[in-house]
Amino acid sequence: MNAYSSTAAGANTQAKTDAAVPGEDAQAVNRSTLRLPNDRWKALEIAFWLLPVASYFFFPDYLVLISQIMIIGLFAMSLDLILGYAGIVSLGHAAFFGLGAYTAGLLSVHGWGEPISGLFAAAIVAGIFGFIVSFLVIRGQDLARLMVTLGIGLMLFEAANKAAFITGGVDGLSGMVMSPLFGAFEFDLYGKTAFWYSFAVLFILFVVMRRVVNSPFGLSLRGIREGGRRMPAIGANVDRRLVAVFTLGAAVAGIAGALLAQTTQFVGLDVLGFPRSAELLIMLVLGGTGRLYGALVGAAVFMIAQDKISGFDPTYWQFYIGLLLVLIVLFARGGILGGLEKIVATFKRKEAP
Amino acid sequence: MIGNFIGVLFDGVAYGALLFLISVGLSVTMGMMNFINLAHGAFAMVGGYVCVTLLSKLGLPFLATLPLAFVAAAVVGLVLERTLYRQLYKATHLDQVLFSIGLTFMAVAGATFLFGPTQQPVHLPDWLRGQVHVLGLDLGAYRLFLIGVVVLITFGLYLLIERTRFGAQIRASVDNQTAAEGLGINVSRVFSLTFALGSGLAGLGGGLGIDVLGLDPSFPIKYMVYFLLVVAVGGAGSIKGPLIAAIILGVFDVAGKYYVPEVGAFVIYTLMVVLLILFPFGLVRRKA
């Protein structure tokens, strides 16, 4: 069904090691279901996470941009859970992002400026909404899913637009007052607090998501992506898993939205717009789906390019983005990380014999 | 009150007819190749801009521009199908969605570059302006014309698909590609022609719709959801389904905007989600 060729290879090898289990005795089966797959951190991963830390010292003038990249990267990772791992194509993921942003924004406008509890509130609101929506999403096939997610995204956008007395409508929600983080760190003009705050939230949630996708649950999601009809045969409840991952993805997207609202102290109507959902999809595909890091790399490349290029002309920017998408789909499935993996694999093959 | 209601109903039907004209090609191509094409609105936009350019630059009469809009969009569709779309029929739906979003973005940027970001004006001939009295009701002359054109085209499509050899080939290819190929039908050629026909109809709809839908570079994105909606609600691969769906959506959209303007487009999205929950495979389900 959904042969995401480049990532399928990785999933298959893992599936093979697990497939050896049924032949062994019952005790071994028990032990193997309790044991979590190996997910030791590689040196490359640690180096990757040192990059933002280093950039704090090397690019002090770009702290705001880097914070935004991290926030949007988190948002893209939440889509990767749903799309890259579970294979649900969503065109309305901004709905949850916007919901989180408005939750945090409205709390702060009405006097609750404590950031961490704002994040939790956003996660809960977006998560509950995602839970409800997930039942609509899992019903149909790809086209129906696409339409439902698109429709719900547009509905929320329209709702926020019309409910200007709550959301500020097209003018956006302003007048957010954030309390200092932990009561000690004021959100400053240079974005230093915002930087470390975003980094910490991103990293913590990354560790959680990494754990999730490397767990048996994450493996079963890949199984659903590769062949949803066969999964019930091995006793997996497909619908329940999809509901769970969709809810989780929605909650994380809500947190990302809340982070953006809190660090910029403004919520514009565009947080809910279709372009945001579409751009998110582009970032994820650009970086490579189904590997979490792809979302972060894609968000970074996309946003840096946008910062550099759209300066001269927004129209050309949109044209190049379109062209890039067509080229990725035609020639470079798997995105940047998929391409790198292929290059590494070719080198390894040359060394091996 | 009653006259008012009939007026809204009439406008809704005219709007729905236009939606049907633009979307019917999408429905057939989606049903045939299972290709999710979000760029369909771009073909309608091509038709619209061809119309506007011919009207203002060459001064052709409005009626003469419409067939040219059809031809231009059909040629663009044929070329793109032969060169690009073709390669993605076997790809995943995600790839198709991304590819067609990419095409849409390029079309939007291209239209902005060529024609500027503003709304294009259209000058209708005098006989299509104003109101016509029918049975004591004031009906917009242009909307009456629109409904007439769509009725004619629908009838023509019906004849083409039900009564001609090519129509039989289309139906066979939609129903079962492999068997159709086995019977010696050149499915790939049938598909190219169908795609061109669908794009052409979209282009015609784009030209006809300038007065109703407006025309600016954001057209393909603004109406994308409507076209997809017609297909998703109506059921891909048929003609009857999209027709019913388009009329329902048109009437509800116009009625919603007329009676409850404060909720705006909310009516149509709610209707869409409800319809998709009730009929996850579309109103008219294609026989497998």
Describe this structure in words.
The complex is a heterodimer of chains A (353) and B (288). Chain A has 353 residues and is mostly helical. Chain A has a domain at 42-274. Chain A is built from 15 helices and no strands. In chain A, helix 10 packs across helix 11, helix 12 (274-287) packs parallel to helix 15 (335-351) and helix 13 packs across helix 15. The radius of gyration of chain A is 21 Å and the shape is globular. Chain B is mainly alpha-helical and 288 residues long. Chain B has one domain (2-278): ABC transporter involved in vitamin B12 uptake, BtuC, CATH 1.10.3470. In chain B, 73% of the residues lie in helices and 3% in strands. Chain B has 13 helices and 2 strands; from the N terminus they run ααααββααααααααα. Chain B has helices spanning 2-33, 40-58, 62-83, 93-115, 141-163, 165-175, 177-182, 187-208, 210-213, 219-222, 224-234, 240-259, 266-278; strands spanning 131-134, 137-140. In chain B, strand 1 (131-134) and strand 2 form a beta hairpin. In chain B, helix 1 (2-33) packs across helix 6 (165-175) and helix 3 (62-83) packs antiparallel against helix 8 (187-208). The longest helix of chain B has 32 residues, at 2-33. The N and C termini of chain B lie far apart (46 Å). The chains are: A mainly alpha (353), B mainly alpha (288). The A-B interface holds A 2-4, 83, 89, 91, 136, 139-144, 146-148, 150-152, 154-155, 158-159, 161-162, 274, 278, 281-282, 285, 289, 315-316, 318-319, 321-326, 328-330, 333 and B 30, 36, 84, 87-88, 91-95, 97-99, 101-110, 112-113, 221, 225, 228-229, 231-232, 236, 262-266, 269-270, 272-273, 276-277, 280-281.
